[in-house]
Amino acid sequence: MKNIHTSGKRKSAIARAVVKQGTGIVRLNSVPIDLVEPRMSRLKLMEPLILAGDVAGKVNIDVSVIGGGISSQAEASRLAIAKALLVYTKNDKLREVFLNYDRNLLVADVRRKEPSKPNRHGQARSKVQKSYR
């Protein structure tokens, strides 16, 4: 079976996943998924693997992720893993399972930070305080 390459994005984090036949080893930036910290990020990364069931035990997944913060990297990686498992299985039932659980497993969240405006103290919508006394 050929290797499958997919990608996922969240804010400025970009994750690339490679799926190949194997024994169920999942690595994030060459670190086994069981050692990923913080725990919430690890649980987020495990969601598509748990939902996929026995399919996840038959493949090795290598994810490389750059940019963004911890949470964004976890969500980008989760998206890449889910898309890769879907392409690997070619299964519409798995697609339904992913979409019913969380639509963001298959569809990227396109929200970005609003650009800051001049004279606004670095925030997009904060105003300069004024006093009339």
Question: Which SSEs are present, and which pair or pack?
Answer:
Elements: E1 4-10, E2 13-21, E3 26-28, E4 31-32, H1 39-52, E5 59-66, H2 70-89, H3 92-101
Helix pairs in contact: 1-2
Tell me what the structure shows.
The protein is of the alpha+beta class and 133 residues long. The protein has one domain (4-105): Ribosomal Protein S5, domain 2 (2-Layer Sandwich), CATH 3.30.230. 33% of the residues lie in helices and 22% in strands. The protein has three helices and five strands. It has helices spanning 39-52, 70-89, 92-101, and strands at residues 4-10, 13-21, 26-28, 31-32, 59-66. A five-stranded mixed beta sheet has the order 1-2-5-3-4. Helix 1 (39-52) packs parallel to helix 2 (70-89). The chain starts with a strand and ends in a 32-residue tail after the last helix.
In short:
By secondary structure, the chain is α+β, with helices and mostly antiparallel strands. The chain is built from 3 helices and 5 strands. Strand 1 and strand 2 (13-21) form a beta hairpin.
